């Protein structure tokens, strides 16, 4: 997670809100980035961006992101999203943890014969 925040440092310094996402595959970060709130255009131009996260706010954000990993239980594939915004000079973060499971992997691990009746496999 330290590498993620190190790589995003410059980008976060220009943003005061958005979402940092981290995609996890086999318990390893495979892809990460920032989805930031859209730019507001008026009268044919975009307003100058406001100040982004300070180094102190980025450090606080990183600590909260690390703390959220304590809530990741048993899953190895998924995505963690950190929605952030600066409110009254403090960075506020909401974390969403999403687990993903691959049916092909489950079918290899648990062949049909070990699941019992075939009707349990149908969803239609």
Automatic annotation (TrEMBL):
This is O-methyltransferase. It comes from the Bacteria.
């Amino acid at each position: 997670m330290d590498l993620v925040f190190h790589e995003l440092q410059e980008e976060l310094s220009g943003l005061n809100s958005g979402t940092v996402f981290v995609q996890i595959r086999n318990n390893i970060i495979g892809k990460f980035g920032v989805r930031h709130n859209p730019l507001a255009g008026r009268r044919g131009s975009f307003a100058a961006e406001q100040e982004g996260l300070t180094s102190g706010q980025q450090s606080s954000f990183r600590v909260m992101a690390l703390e959220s990993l304590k809530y990741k239980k048993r899953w190895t594939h998924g995505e963690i999203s950190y929605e952030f915004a600066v409110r009254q000079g403090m960075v506020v973060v909401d974390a969403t943890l999403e687990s993903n499971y691959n049916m092909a992997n489950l079918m290899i691990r648990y062949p049909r014969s070990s699941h019992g009746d075939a009707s349990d496999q149908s969803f239609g």
